[in-house]
């Protein structure tokens, strides 16, 4: 399951500000934050699923496209606004591509980094979703 969460912009004459609060405007507790930037032209990132991780992706600058696949249905979302958060539940194969040169992709996650939570092989992912 994935969905776009519209993040409210608190704007005034000085400009804009967005606040993200765990379990308030996003549906999980935040354990980790990382950001992807300086992505080289033509690169595809992601290409994995997480067994048990919730994430929110925000293109805080620039844009990129995210494709999502639950083993049966596929979708695709373009992120090009700091006020659009893409919430991604566990067990979705994701790929990020078409990064603009200036893209900064901010990711909030509900768990610390753990390589054992990754499925990095697509056939392994399909086997896993069909057995759960
Ligand atoms: P990876 O998850 O493969 O990046 P992406 O899916 O965004 O392309 O991570 C790239 C490298 O960074 C890999 O060696 C693992 C490391 N890494 C961490 O050490 N901590 C983290 O929180 C993340 C997301 C990755």
Give a quick summary of the entry.
With 132 residues, this protein is mainly beta.
Q: Which stretches of 5+ consecutive residues score pLDDT under 50?
A: none
Distance between the termini: 15 Å
Count of DSSP E strands? 10
Strand content: 35-45%
| Ligands (ions, cofactors included) | thymidine-5'-diphosphate
Give a quick account of the main beta sheet: strands, pairing sense, barrel closure. 5 strands, antiparallel
Structural class: mainly beta
The percent of residues in helical segments reads: under 10%
Total helices: the number is 1
Overall shape: it is globular
Return the average pLDDT rounded to an integer.
97
Strand order of the largest sheet: 1-7-4-9-2
Order of helices and strands: EEEEEEEEEEH
**Radius of gyration using CA atoms only:** 15 Å
Descriptors for this entry?
132 residues; mainly beta; 5-stranded antiparallel sheet; 1 helix; 40% strand
Descriptive account of the structure:
The protein is mostly beta strands and 132 residues long. 8% of the residues lie in helices and 40% in strands. The strands form two sheets. Strands 1-7-4-9-2 form a five-stranded antiparallel beta sheet, with no helix packed on it. It binds thymidine-5'-diphosphate.
In terms of topology, how is this protein built?
Layout (H helix, E strand, L loop, with lengths): L1 E5 L25 E5 L8 E6 L4 E7 L2 E6 L4 E6 L4 E5 L4 E5 L6 E6 L8 E2 L2 H10 L1
Antiparallel strand pairs: 1-7, 2-9, 3-8, 3-10, 4-7, 4-9, 5-6, 5-8
This protein binds thymidine-5'-diphosphate (TYD).
